[in-house]
Amino acid sequence: MTTLTDRRDPAAARPGRRSHTLTEWRPEDPEFWAATGARTAARNLVHSVLTEHIGFSVWSLWSVLVLFLGPEYGLDPARKFTLTALPTALGAVLRLPYTFAVARFGGRNWTVFSALLLLLPTGLAGVLLHPGASYGTLLVLACVSGVGGGNFASSMANINAFYPQRLKGWALGVNAGGGNLGVPVVQLVGLLVLATAGAAHPRVLLLVYLPLIVASALAAWLRMDNLRVGGAATAGDGWRDLGEVARHGHSWALSALYTGTFGSFIGFGFAFGQVLQVQFADRFDTPVRAAYLTFLGPLLGSLTRPVGGRLADRWGGARVTLGTFLAMAAGAALVLTASRSGSLPLFMVGFVALFLFSGVGNGSTYKMIPAVQQAAARAAVAAGALAPGAAEETARRRTTALIGLAGAIGAFGGVLVNAAFRQSFLTAGTGDLAYAAFLAAYAVCAALTWALYVRRR
Questions:
Q1: Which of 33, 66, 249, 400 is the most exposed place for a label (fewest CB within 10 A)?
Q2: Which residues face 12 on adjacent strands?
């Protein structure tokens, strides 16, 4: 009889209480999955999405808060783009240690801790954000909010371990898409605050999120589980797996593709409101007018991420990713054309396409990661370098390591997007140079996908 509780845990034997540590987990076993696995995995997925969603909202707080920073703060557009780039950078750095923290501390334990850590940037901004605050203070506040970006990596690593290979595209897509929704949601909440309390009251936005953070941490503590299968993993195991995947060219290729998709999503999500205000200053002369459209792109990109995972489950991640980059290149070309002609409707259509297809590509690229690692493990078994019984566990561990690597590098893509906008507006007064750079990057990513994963399969 399979049990999902740790019999060594005294709490498991107490009436009315269950252990939150699973010592046997076989998602590839159809009977196990149908009997108990699917229900347990779904419960963990729901709460993983919730906490990751709040993390994304905190991570992208400054994409909204910059709209509150009026003339009294004395900031030009270049300085505001720096404020939106800093959280992306710290979030990218934290993704690697957050990935391996799940193996060391357990998915449930780390989810609770990382959720409560979100109180730090939210509380600090609530106290220190006011007219007269120095630019250095604003830089520190923006940077600290990057802790929300690390939640994505630990959440994805945790959910990857819960689901069988045939459902990973869908499960990772749902997990990531639900988390990504934190970007448009915080922007919608910011719009509501701007429209009601006004631009002079950014702290109202922060007060909304403080109780949500506590509630998500409490729910994770009560409902999530730690996986302890085959002995307790350590952070050192994760770093060793990272060293293994870092030796393979495919790991860097997949990281580049993820930079093109997720880096675009998070970079555009942070910068879009400012781009509208600077590019079309005559039509978006107040923060409220820009906020009405800011949330639209991130919303669509978040909703299409599970779609990309599902399409990849059916048609293959490489084919879907190739189509995604071709569509994103067309979207960038449309945005560049609209910018040069001054057409706001065409500009919006192009940017919405970029958000929408970046979401599809996020899902399909993450489907490619476990598929490539599973193929590598099978090849190692065939070559006699790996025992047949160790293939599945090796693929799972290295998938987790590659998710951390690709997630960290991909998040730095958001920094590059904001840096490109900052330099383009400083140099030319428009975003045209940045749009041309995005078009070239998507063309390179499409060629890479075709050469490595479609043509050679």
A1: 249
A2: none
Closest CA relative to residue 416, chosen from 56, 89, 75, 91: 89
CATH number, position 23 = 1.20.1250.20
Token duo for residue 166: 């045939």
Who's near 183: CB < 8 A, 6+ residues apart? Answer: 56, 57, 60, 63, 266, 269, 295, 298, 302
Return the H-helix or E-strand segment holding 226: strand 226-227
Q: Which domain holds residue 346?
A: 10-454
337 falls within a domain: yes
Question: Which helix or strand (DSSP H or E) is residue 21 part of?
Answer: strand 21-22
Q: Rounded to two decimals, what is the model's pTM?
A: 0.78
Mean pLDDT per 10-residue run, the chain (457 residues)?
39 53 89 93 95 94 88 87 89 89 90 96 92 93 93 89 85 85 90 86 91 96 84 57 84 93 89 86 75 81 85 88 96 95 93 93 85 82 78 80 86 89 88 95 96 82
